[in-house]
């Protein structure tokens, strides 16, 4: 589905936050590599926590405000997943203009960046620059961005 571009989509997002939980049964270096494969060369922060049952885990987080890095993230995504995001966009954007995605950690480790179908995921929150800052404006802005991303993928 294509949408007419009525705004400058070059600065569609103000930030991207990513978070992955590394359980004690997982290799933290593999989870870090999954994050890097999905996000590019970005600084990762690791903190130690305990799970609900006292089990140790590490939380790996990253943040960028650079549109070039956010564009790079979307360019790595599978075209069919961009279409799924477009079709389900209304359920993925909250009232604070955040777009929520969940990526497969396993696939990201193998350099395939796609939406997760299970709980083993990298959580992504992308802040949409929408004017006025309302959910409806954010949906339009995200759809316009996705349309340009899909066009770039199909012409590549």
Question: What would you call the structural class?
Answer: alpha+beta
What fraction strand? 25-35%
Largest sheet: 5 strands, antiparallel
Going by CATH, what is the homologous superfamily of the domain at 12-19 and 63-155?
Answer: Ribosomal protein L5
In whole angstroms, how far apart are the ends? Answer: 18 Å
What report would you give on this structure?
The protein is an alpha+beta fold. The protein has a domain at 12-19 and 63-155: 50s Ribosomal Protein L5, Chain: A, CATH 3.30.1440.10. It has helices spanning 28-39, 67-76, 79-87, 89-92, 105-109, 135-155, and strands at residues 13-23, 44-50, 56-64, 98-104, 121-128. The protein has a five-stranded antiparallel β-sheet. A hairpin with a 5-residue loop joins strand 2 and strand 3. The longest helix is centred in the C-terminal third of the chain and has 21 residues, at 135-155. The protein is globular, with a radius of gyration of 16 Å. Residues 1-9 have low confidence and may be disordered.
List keywords for this structure.
alpha+beta; 50s Ribosomal Protein L5, Chain: A; disordered N terminus; globular; 6 helices; 156 residues; five-stranded antiparallel sheet
Can I get a quick summary?
This protein has 156 residues and is of the alpha+beta class.
Secondary structure layout:
Elements: E1 13-23, H1 28-39, E2 44-50, E3 56-64, H2 67-76, H3 79-87, H4 89-92, E4 98-104, H5 105-109, E5 121-128, H6 135-155
Antiparallel strand pairs: 1-3, 1-5, 2-3, 4-5
Helix pairs in contact: 3-6
């Amino acid at each position: 589905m294509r949408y007419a571009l009525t705004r400058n989509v070059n600065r569609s997002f103000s930030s991207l936050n990513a978070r992955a939980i590394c359980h004690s049964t997982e290799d933290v270096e593999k989870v870090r590599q999954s994050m890097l494969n999905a996000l590019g060369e970005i600084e990762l922060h690791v903190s130690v926590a305990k799970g609900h049952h006292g089990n140790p885990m590490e939380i790996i987080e990253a943040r960028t405000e650079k549109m070039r890095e956010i564009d790079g993230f979307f360019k790595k995504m599978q075209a069919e997943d961009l279409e799924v995001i477009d079709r389900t966009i209304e359920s993925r954007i909250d009232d604070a203009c955040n777009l929520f995605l969940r990526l497969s950690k396993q696939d990201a480790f193998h350099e395939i960046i796609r939406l997760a179908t299970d709980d083993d995921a990298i959580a992504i929150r992308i802040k949409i620059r929408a004017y006025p800052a309302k959910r409806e404006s954010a949906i339009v802005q995200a759809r316009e961005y996705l349309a340009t991303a899909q066009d770039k993928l199909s012409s590549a």
